[in-house]
Amino acid sequence: MLFALLYVLPLLDVLTHAEENLRAGASRLDCVRASDQCLREQACSSKYRTMRQCVAGGKESNFSLVAGVEARDECRSAMEALKQSPLYNCRCKRGMKKEKNCLRIYWGIYQSLQGNDFLEESPYEPVNKRLSDIFRLAPILGEPAVARENNCLTAAKACNLNDTCKKYRSAYISPCTSRVSTAEICNKRKCHKALRQFFDKVPPKHSYGMLFCSCPVSDQTACSERRRQTIVPVCSYEEKQTPNCLELQASCKTNYICRSRLADFFVNCMSEPRSLSGCLKENYADCLLAYSGLIGTVMTPNYLRSPKISVSPYCDCSNSGNNKDNCDKFTEFFTENTCLRTFSLLLKLPFTCIQF
Taking the CA atoms of the chain, what radius of gyration do you get in angstroms? Predict the structure, then answer.
């Protein structure tokens, strides 16, 4: 009980700070609106077009590759001018109607400023989600040692009784289980899109309830496999051949949505072993949201078939050559992440200890 209180109280302080930050950034435009506004203003529009030409001319999104000192100076001037416009501070909302277009605009502006794979800024606006919303799931997530039933089965039943959850679950089950041909077990693109909509549209009470449900000791094997099957792994997660993790990451970064969801995950699930929550920013609720946001991309993570709770994208580090260390670092962000492992802690805490 004492440990649970020590764990929860610091999060309350962080929650207050996060909500203050949300209020402070409330006036920030999404990138679609910011782009429209900029294009209506002659000065901004001119600099915006110049910047886009610079990025296109660089091919690798690096202004220094644009030929000629004069051209490079013009590119820098355009970017400096745009720092004074709404475009420079624009963000996107996960699951918004024009999400892909918004992300295209965002990366068109910021990709020249990004470098380190683990330090890319998230293009998403922070979500106003109280940590107590996560803890209210405890009756479903429950203590495995005292659970009297298969909580993953209970979560699935609860989903079927909720119109929104049932609608979006049916919408992904169909494309994720329908064979396209003898060579293709499903249409992976449609399957991934439907999975993203499920986790973007369904309330966490139901989507998290299915994804993060706990299993009683008496029924670990069948229950754990039901939890693993939540995202239909044969279609959405597994491949005929296991890809190299760095190659999978490179493939992800060619897609605006995948790149954005991965950047969001790196930012919000950065671990800190000395932190009580295990998270660098003490933002465990944001980490869960970022983790679920990866589902429905080529970087879709899932539970590994092992006794302990461990997750990973479907890849390994074989054939990494001289990049083996970088590849291991990437995979360990999933498998050895103390922030994600807080999830294991919450599954093992009795509900009476964490409710507030």
Answer: 22
